[in-house]
Amino acid sequence: MGSGKTSWSIQHINDNPYENFLYITPFLDEVERIINGTNRKFSQPVNKGNGKLASINDLLACQSDIASTHELFRHFDAESRENLINGHYTLILDEVLNVIEPYNDIDIHNDDLKLLEDGGCVTVDKDGFVIWNKEKLDYDTRYNEIKFLADNRSLICINQKLLLWRYPPEIFTLFDKVYILTYLFEASILKAYFDLYGIKYDKKSIQIQKNKYCLTDFFIPDTSVYADKINIYTGKMNENINQKMNGLSATWFKARMNQENIRQIKRNIYNYFSRVVNARSETIMWTTFKDYRTKLKGKGYSNQFVSCNCRSTNKYADTYNLAYCVNVYLHPGIAQFFKQRGVDINEDLYGLSEMIQWVWRSRIRKGEKINIYIPSIRMRNLLNSWIKMTLEYQNKIAS
Questions:
Q1: What mean pLDDT do residues 137-151 have?
Q2: What backbone phi and psi angles, to 5 degrees, belong to 255?
């Protein structure tokens, strides 16, 4: 983080005038940064009545340089694929893509899938993929979304009830080159996905050499310089919440027995910001799962909420009083998907990565000190262990 990934991208684009580039990033403001920062004419898809997918397909067909978002990239279709091959594109993917996630169409339920199965409209193959039977139902219905995803081999049934969306892995093979800009790739779902589908990759690092950003052999950066800049709260508010190691997980928040604990966390957040660190609102950044934001928001900090999966933005680089009120685990369906296919994901490394990425939105990215309240025992231990590990690693190198 902060090694100059976006700056390297801009430099690489400027230095390669004969390549066609597709730059994909989570946020629109980063799209603008690429459009304004390069010496190329980048286009941004716009909805001209047929939707943004039609727009990006037109741009791909014209072999334009394109900057767009993760969300649109997720919806590429057969036309997109053909245009990518013909255009010999280089993909620069800013931050890992969510390639496996729960399918949460509010209009489609598990009962609908059973209805479609009973009617012979869909089947589930041995690998769990939903297959659309065109002979039974090949016209527009309220199930068009399922039809589209099934035809794309993007809809998976887990344990006969939970539906997962999967990004088609073959799309990554349609580019001449692919660069993925991220930190702690080893902790990501994308790494497990690449391993599962046999997509080969090399890991590189970025260094400045002779005033230029260069890709070099992978190395572990010195993160020990941040150890004394993270002030983790250690007071009584860590003890007045009844929790075990799963405390503040999504499942824990849902449990009726923990509602008083949730109210206590809200009181703790208020006391931490107002009395422990005496924070002005503009210096605050806090988070929890979005479904519980309203239960934890309070006077003086409500508007300073930053999503717990926030990435690729400098918008909060002046904040230094933080509250990280989540305990991050993989979604059980995603963990089951990989486990059934013989791929293990380190849940602690995944949770640590998510937390570090969020903390990096604050002013620590500028090398300045921050304060942080972490009510989850597990997440607090993970951050403390990471700090200890970075110090031990650098001491080992030094000796």
A1: 72
A2: -65, 130
